[in-house]
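User: Working on a comparison across species. This one is Surface layer protein A domain-containing protein from Levilactobacillus koreensis. Can you predict its structure so I can line it up against the others?
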Amino acid sequence: MELLKTASILLAATTFGVALVAVAPATTAQASKQTLLKSYPKNMRRTWYRYEKGHYIKEKITAKTNDGDKLHYFNPNKKWPKVTKKNQNWVYAFKTSKGVIGTGPWWGLETGWTSVNDMGSMKGQQLVTKTYKGRKVKALKEIYSNSAPLRWGYSYSSKKMAKYFNPKGTVLWADK
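Assistant: Here's the predicted structure for Surface layer protein A domain-containing protein from Levilactobacillus koreensis:
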């Protein structure tokens, strides 16, 4: 009796699974979607530190600023903004499907992009985890894509962590 019950459950599960595969629509690979941001994500908002050449480098991210650069939003479905003297030093930010926050200067909008997915950035930032004294902590991975070759480095939420991960104060920008 047990064997018959087990066999019928297995047959029903297999049949149901095959039916789902047959009914499910085919998916196609798409380019990564980008979404313009009105503010920086809450988990990135804080002061981040790097320790280089014997001193600390501080970067403060708030809802509307990133290291002093003011974030501005525009609706990409409407007419794209014109670059003027007033707004040329503003920045835009977008989030990719991989969790990277891209930031670029407002004057970069004059490159002829037609959609948000075409937009490029000067700096990309992503939260990653590192192990600090046996526990997981957040670190800010920064990618400078306007340099050739691509350069990246890490910032941490405290000066102690910054010095722990770079005790000699060597410049951490790695070429990749």
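For your comparison, note: The longest strand covers residues 123-132.

User: Helpful, thanks.
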